[in-house]
Design goal:
mainly alpha, 215 residues, single chain
């Protein structure tokens, strides 16, 4: 287990801590006794620390030449767990509209499904620049929403940030679908062309075997 993979696992293990901090109502947990800061600030620190590991693990994996299959599989899973857990928790405490979170998480499942289908077909849909910008926008917007629990003046920027996330999500999803269908269309055309060539060869061989002049 190399360092980049350990950072990815750390991001996954931070998810339950983030959820506990966001959903604790203060009556069941004495934060002053266990943590020197409020639960909102603690949740914000946990979320930002987890998001930072997303930057570090990819950078270190490329810099140290430690890109592994396990890391490639775990990294997007860890990202989706972190974002989904944060958004669902924020819905539970009435900080983000449920319909917005459903669309954002639904987009993640749809794109993951497209990538899986494409991978099974033998080709890879790489993360686009829009997709990478979407992840950065998600981290920024969620941080603003968590911060607005403690500092109400952040509420308006948080709302704007969530709408920006929605925009990036819809546009990047459309880009992934466009890439997917183009690859699928090219694959189908290539397969049909090969089938026609095989059929033509068979006809020629059959004609030669029967002593007829191939047309």
């Amino acid at each position: 287990m190399n360092l980049p993979n350990l950072l990815t696992l750390a991001r996954i293990f931070l998810v339950p801590l983030l959820v506990a901090a966001l959903l604790a109502d203060g009556s069941s947990v004495n934060w002053d006794k266990w943590v020197p800061v409020s639960r909102e600030v603690f949740a914000l620190c946990v979320f930002l620390a987890a998001a930072a590991t997303d930057l570090l693990d990819g950078f270190l994996a490329r810099r140290l030449g430690q890109v592994t299959t396990v890391g490639t599989l775990l990294d997007p899973i860890a990202d989706k767990l972190l974002v989904s857990a944060a958004l669902i928790s924020l819905v539970d405490i009435h900080r983000v509209p449920a319909w917005m979170v459903i669309l954002i998480i639904g987009r993640e499942f749809a794109v993951s499904g497209l990538r899986s289908i494409a991978s099974a077909g033998g080709y890879t849909i790489a993360a686009s620049d829009l997709g990478k910008s979407k992840m950065a926008a998600q981290v920024f917007a969620i941080a603003l929403v968590i911060g607005s629990i403690r500092w109400p003046w952040l509420s308006e920027p948080a709302v704007i940030g969530m709408w920006v996330v929605m925009l990036f999500g819809i546009v990047s999803a459309a880009d992934y679908f466009r890439t997917f269908w183009r690859r699928v269309d090219d694959s189908v055309k290539l397969r049909r062309r090969r089938e026609l060539l095989r059929m033509e060869r068979r006809k020629k061989r059959s004609a030669m075997a029967s002593g007829q002049q191939p047309i």
